[in-house]
Amino acid sequence: MLIDTHSHLDFPDFDADRADIIQRATEAGVTRIISIGTTLQTSRAALALADTFPQIYATVGLHPSEVQEAPESAVDELAQLARHPKVVAIGECGLDYHRLPSRSSTPFAAASSTMGEVFPGREELELADADLKNRQSIFFQQQLDLALELKLNVVIHQRDSWADTLVTLKPYSGRLQAVFHCFSGTWAQAQELFSMGHSISLTGIVTFKNARDLHSCVQQIPAGSFFLETDCPYLAPEPHRGKRCEPAYTRQIAEKVAALRNQSIEEISRETSLAAEQFFRLPPR
């Protein structure tokens, strides 16, 4: 039995055949799926799926790339949603600096960044960066506080923000656990998380031939410290790379992890399912 611990089944990519996709997952041995909230709307949609399908659970959260559009009361609304019995974590939440205003693809921004000079408007871009980082940080900390209040763990999104994410999370270590979803880092980074009591989850990236650092990491991480996920509709594993991903592909991810660790897929299924059950407090099967 496998668990897809991070999916976006409410996305319109699945509107035409959602029930079929869930059935294919079951046939592939993926017996439980966690649908992840990224906005108030998608959090409600994840809960609706959890109400409809017994094998689906939900998280509720605000993705850092969505906080600009979120109302100031968003976390209060999340608190109400999080009391649903099938909510198993807060998130995904965190920090994402990949698309800051100063990293705009406009010729001016690119030239300013490359040359390191101060052009008219550069200060404004840097102020916009600071404003966005601050808003992300506020919503991230509010969601961590909510997780503490409700005794739930958190699903972390981190992109180009490693140091700030750990600085924000550190005061909460020992009081809640986090999983860094879509982990594609190094063994040293994984060790840093494990030392703080946190976990990682692996996507289809682990099947990519050029993910050498991740392959080395997977060979070393201890059992019980990692889960499997698809992040569907994104990051389809080989041989489906570039196509729409779906929960059934958790099996291809498990097969690659098993090969890297010289284990059977049955062992990987058992170990990752147990770890996910404990982290998300799912009923055992």
UniProtKB/TrEMBL annotation:
Binding site for a divalent metal cation 2: 157, 181
GO molecular function: hydrolase activity, acting on ester bonds; metal ion binding
Pfam annotation, one family: TatD_DNase
Record's keyword terms, sorted: Hydrolase, Metal-binding
Ligand binding (a divalent metal cation 1): 6, 8, 92, 231
InterPro entries documented for this protein: DNase_TatD-rel_CS, Metal_Hydrolase, TatD-like
GO annotations of cellular component type: cytosol
SUPFAM superfamilies tied to this protein: Metallo-dependent hydrolases
Family recorded in the similarity comment: Belongs to the metallo-dependent hydrolases superfamily. TatD-type hydrolase family.
Protein name per its UniProtKB record: DNAase
